[in-house]
Amino acid sequence: MPCFRCGARQTDPVRGASPWRRGVRADHQVLVCPGCQTAHDWADDLDRCAACGSVALVCRLGEVECRDCGHTREAVRDDPRPADLVPSSAVPRDDRGLSEEVAAALSRVLRRGPAG
Hints:
Blueprint: E1 21-25, E2 28-32, H1 34-37, E3 57-60, E4 63-66, E5 72-74, H2 96-109
């Protein structure tokens, strides 16, 4: 899943906590890359908890849950994946390298040699 603000793809993280942040926008789970988190208003486009106002939301199994206060509600979705979650200017036009990246990641995970 790419960053919803700039379209950057998440790469294999180093050990430890991921620098990417999760959030919810239009009742869909989204990711925010570390670069976009440096913007002072990076969380302004995310949904907020109705109970406490936090943006620490996760969307799973048709529910949106606040990780700060525990408030849950049903996810209401008109569209399975609204087009405005990732700006069209941020969507890569050429994904030829994606298959190579996936093959390399699978090789690392499955401890095989380089993909041929």
